[in-house]
Specification:
The protein has 359 residues and is of the alpha+beta class. It has helices at residues 4-24, 41-55, 64-74, 142-152, 224-243, 252-264, 269-285, 292-297, 303-307, 309-316, 320-330, and strands at 27-31, 34-39, 82-85, 90-94, 103-108, 112-118, 122-127, 130-135, 139-140, 154-159, 163-167, 176-181, 185-192, 195-200, 203-208, 212-217, 222-223, 342-344, 351-353, 356-358. Helices cover 38% and strands 28% of the residues.
C-alpha cells in the first residue's frame, strides 16, 4: 500500500497542474512541444484530482498557503510575465511552435517581451508589434529575466502638453533648459512628488508630472515588415550620403551628431564622444545592425530617434561640438572601451562620464 506521503505528493502535483491551468484558463497538452489540445483547470481539479483522491483513499486538499506557494512558483511562466532574449545576436520568431514554421520576425539580444502562452519547449511572446513563438532555449525567464529587464529597460515619459518647459530645478521659478512638445519621449531618472526628473540632453531636467504619461519600456524585437522598412530606409540613407541625391539629407556624421546632442548635449565633450562610441561599438559588435542608421533607428533602442527628436534636431541644426564628437567616434576613438549601453548615473555599474554611466 502506498504511503500517505506519496499520496500527498501525488495530489499536490495534480493541484499544482490545476492552479497553473487556472492562471491561463487552460492547460496545454503537448507532444514534444507541439500543441495537441487543452484541458481546463476545473477539469483537472474536479475530475483528475478528485478521482485520484478517491483511488488513493485520501481526502487531501491543498491549504491556502500551499496554493499560494504553487502560484508563486509558477508565476514566472504565466501570461504577462517578463521574458528576455537569451542570444548573442538574434533568434527567429515563428508563427507556430515548430522550427519549420514560417518566420514572423526576430528577437534580438537585450530585447524583452511578455509571455502570452508557455509550453515546455516553446513560448508565445509579445514584444512590441512582434507576436510569435520562440524556442525556450533562446529565452530567459523568471527572476533572471526580470533582473535583466531592470538593467536594460527604463521608465519613459511621453509629453501630453502642447508645450512644456524643462526646468533646472523642481520649481516653477527655476531656470529653463528648453521647451519640449507633445509626443516627445524622455527617459525618467526619478519621480519627486509632483515633478519628474528626466534625462534632457544628458542633464537632469524637471517637468511637471501632470503633463506626462510614464511607462516602463523595453527594447523590442522586430516583425519582418519592420525589418524590411528599416533596411529599405538604410539603403535610402546610403544613397543620400554617397551620391548626394538630396542635399538636405543627413550624413552619418550629422545623424550621429544629432543623436549625441539629444542624449548628451548638456554633457562635457568626453560625455558626447562616449555616446557616439556606444553607437559605433554596436555597429561593430555583430549583435546589432551594422550601420549607424540601423543602430540609431532600431526598434526601441534610442528614445530620441523613435520619438522624432533626432529628425527635428537635424532640421534645426546640430552643434559643432556634437558634430566633432560624432566624427571622433566614427574615426574609431572610444573612451568607454567596448561599452554598448549607457544610462543616467546611479542606475548601473560601469564607466562614469559626466551624468551617464557606460557599460
Amino acid at each position: 500500500m502506498k504511503s500517505t506521503t506519496f499520496k500527498q505528493a501525488a495530489l499536490l502535483f495534480l493541484a499544482s497542474l490545476a492552479i497553473a491551468a487556472w492562471a491561463n484558463g487552460h492547460l496545454e497538452v503537448t507532444d514534444q512541444g507541439h500543441a495537441q489540445g487543452t484541458v481546463s483547470g476545473d477539469y483537472i481539479f474536479y475530475e483528475v484530482y478528485a478521482g485520484a483522491a478517491e483511488v488513493l483513499e485520501v481526502n487531501l486538499e491543498p491549504t491556502e498557503d500551499e496554493i499560494q506557494q504553487i502560484r508563486e512558483n509558477n508565476s514566472w511562466k504565466n501570461p504577462g510575465a517578463v521574458v528576455m532574449a537569451n542570444v548573442t545576436d538574434s533568434v527567429n520568431v515563428r508563427q507556430e511552435p515548430d522550427e519549420n514554421a514560417d518566420k514572423v520576425g526576430k528577437f534580438y539580444k537585450d530585447c524583452g517581451g511578455y509571455i502570452i502562452e508557455y509550453t515546455e519547449e516553446w513560448t508565445k511572446i509579445e514584444s512590441g508589434n512582434l507576436i510569435g513563438w520562440v524556442n525556450n532555449d533562446y529565452l530567459t525567464f523568471g527572476d533572471e529575466a526580470q533582473q535583466e529587464a531592470d538593467e536594460v529597460g527604463s521608465y519613459q515619459a511621453v509629453i501630453t502638453a502642447d508645450s512644456l518647459r524643462v526646468r533646472k530645478e523642481a520649481s516653477t521659478e527655476a531656470g529653463v533648459y528648453g521647451t519640449i512638445a507633445e509626443g516627445d519621449v524622455f527617459e525618467v531618472v526619478e519621480e519627486q512628488g509632483e515633478w519628474l526628473v528626466i534625462d534632457y540632453e544628458g542633464a537632469s531636467g524637471y517637468i511637471s508630472a501632470d503633463y506626462a504619461d510614464v511607462s516602463f519600456c523595453l527594447d523590442y524585437g522586430e516583425t519582418l515588415e519592420e525589418i524590411a522598412e528599416r533596411e529599405a530606409a538604410e539603403e535610402e540613407a546610403k544613397r543620400f550620403q554617397y551620391y548626394g541625391v538630396y542635399a538636405t539629407e543627413a550624413t552619418d556624421v550629422e545623424l550621429l551628431g544629432a543623436l549625441i546632442q539629444c542624449e548628451a548635449g548638456n554633457q562635457p565633450y568626453e560625455g558626447m564622444v562616449a555616446v557616439g562610441a556606444v553607437v559605433m561599438n554596436r555597429v561593430r559588435s555583430g549583435a546589432y545592425p551594422n550601420t549607424i542608421y540601423g543602430v540609431i533607428y532600431a526598434s526601441g533602442q534610442f528614445t530620441p530617434a523613435g520619438s522624432g527628436q533626432v529628425d527635428r534636431r537635424i532640421a534645426n541644426g546640430v552643434s559643432a561640438a556634437c558634430i566633432q564628437a560624432a566624427q571622433d567616434a566614427i574615426n574609431g576613438y572610444s573612451n568607454v572601451g567596448t561599452a554598448t549601453h549607457f544610462r543616467p548615473t546611479g542606475s548601473h555599474d560601469g564607466i562614469v562620464i559626466g551624468g551617464h554611466v557606460f557599460w
